[in-house]
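As noted in the main text, all predictions were made from sequence alone. Below is one such record, for 3-methyl-2-oxobutanoate hydroxymethyltransferase.
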Amino acid sequence: MAAILNRLSKSYTTVTKHTFKISGSVRCMSNVPENTVYGGPKPQNPDQRVTLTTLRTKHRKGEAITMVTAYDYPSAVHLDSAGIDIALVGDSASMVVHGHDTTLPITLEEMLVHCRAVARGAKRPLLVGDLAFGTYESSSQQAVDTAVRVLKEGGMDAIKLEGGAPSRISAAKHIVESGIAVMGHVGLTPQAISVLGGFRPQGRNVLSAVKVVETALALQEAGCFSVVLECVPAPVAAAATSVLQIPTIGIGAGPFCSGQVLVYHDLLGMMQHPHHAKVTPKFCKQFAQIGEGINKALSEYKQEVENRSFPGVAYSPYKINPAEVEGFSKELQKMGLDKAAAAAAEAADKFETGKKI
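Prediction:
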C-alpha cells in the first residue's frame, strides 16, 4: 500500500511541475471563462478607448467633442472608423428607424436591442444610451433600475436623460450616486412635446433662456458629466457653456458649445422620402447625399433583375463540372424528373457557352 501511495505522490508532483512549467504561456484547465473580465481576449486600450477622462481632457484643452447617433452595428462601425468621440444610442431611433412621429413609443426592450448592436460595432467611442420615455419618470428607483439595465444588458458606458423637472434632476442625481455616468439634456426635450406643444425651440425669451441655463446648472450639480443643448439660440448656448464646468454638446444650438451631435441618417442625407424631408431639422447639414445613391442603386438592381442581366455568370461563382452535371441529370431522370434534368443540362450549357440567360 505504501508503495502505491508513494508512486501516486511522485506522479502528482510530476504533473504539478509540468503544469506550472507551461502555465506562463498557456492557460490550461482553468475554471475561469476566457470571455470574462478576468481572462478576456483583449484588454481595453486606454490610449484608444474614449472615457470620461478623455472628454474632460478635451474640454480642458478647448478641443471640440464629436458625437453622432448610432442605432445598429453598421453605423457603429462607421463611427468607430471615423474616430467619433461619443456614440449616442438615441431614442430618436423611434422616429428614424421605427417610423414613429415622435420618440415616445420606443420601449426599453427595443432600446436595449439597439444598444447591444452598437456596443458590438463601436470599440473606441464612449457609448451613451438614452433612457426611453416611461422608464424613469415614476421614481428615482425606477430610473436607477433602468439605467442599470442599459449598462448591464445594453453594454453602454453611460446613460442620457432629459432634464427639466425637479424629479428628473433628482433621478439624474440618484443614478450618478449609484455609480453610473449621466449625460443631461436641456432645451428642446422631445419626450416633453406634450407639454411643449410640439417640437419647438426653447430659450427664445428671457424666462425660457434663463430656465435653460438654470436647468443645465442643476444637472451639473446632480453630477452629470455633460449636457446636451438642443434647439436653443446660440447666445443662450454660449451662456450655458461659459458658466458650466462640464462640456456642452449642441444640436441646433450654434457654434459656441463644447461639441456637437447630429443624427447619423440626417448628416448622411440618407432619408430621401418626402415625409422625412418635411421633418428634417433646419439645423442639420447634410455632409453627403447617401439617400440618392441608395435609391439609384436599388432602382438599378430592380431593373437588372427584371431584365435578367443580374446575377449572370460573373455573379454565379459556384461551379459544377460537366461530368457531374450529366450524372445529376441522369439521377433526376431516374426519379422521373425529366423537366428538372433538362433544366439543369440547359443551364450548364448556357454557362459553358456564355449564352444569354
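The beta strands are 65-69, 86-89, 126-130, 158-160, 181-187, 226-230, 248-251, 259-262. Residues 347 and 353 are 10 Å apart (CA to CA). These features were considered when defining construct boundaries for the mutagenesis experiments described in Section 2.9.
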